[in-house]
Amino acid sequence: MMSAATPLSSGPRVTPSTCHVLVVDDDRDIRETLQEILESEGYEVNTARNGADGLARARELRPALILLDLFMPVMDGAEFRQQQLSDPELARIPVVIVSAAAGLEERIAALGVAAHLEKPLDLDELFEVVGRYCR
Predict the structure, then answer these.
(1) Is 24 within 8 Å of 74 (Cβ atoms)?
(2) C or N terminus of the chain, fewer CB within 10 Å?
(3) Which residues are recorded with the post-translational modification 4-aspartylphosphate (predicted)?
(4) pLDDT tens, 76-120?
(5) Structural domain boundaries of the chain?
(6) Contacts 24+ apart (CB under 8 A), 126-131
(7) 25, exposed or middle or buried, with CB in 10 Å at 0-12, 13-18, 19+?
């Protein structure tokens, strides 16, 4: 698992301060850690604790990228994605699945997401994927 003591990068990165990332995960420690790590790299980050909260935050904030957990109470990642895609204002926002569950390649592929990152996260991979959508 990531921690605040984890080295943040292997080299300097340049990120626009206006790039907004929404982290949707029911695990408070993961939300807060991702927020801290990404903010230290210059991203604007907001969080949501479940899919329903995430949809409301996405409608309000219009982030450049959404990092989405699959398994959450209230509304899981698959239902979030279905509702997101049915909303023309949100459908264009890329989503990256962040999940510890193994063997979900087919399910994740069916969601039509931009990428999939496995927990525990490799920070260089996280920064590469986020940077791809925040230029």
Answers:
(1) no
(2) C
(3) 69
(4) 999 999 999 999 999 999 999 998 877 788 888 899 999 999 989
(5) 20-133
(6) 126/37, 127/9, 127/13, 127/41, 129/96, 130/21, 130/38, 130/43, 130/65, 130/67, 130/96, 131/13, 131/15
(7) buried
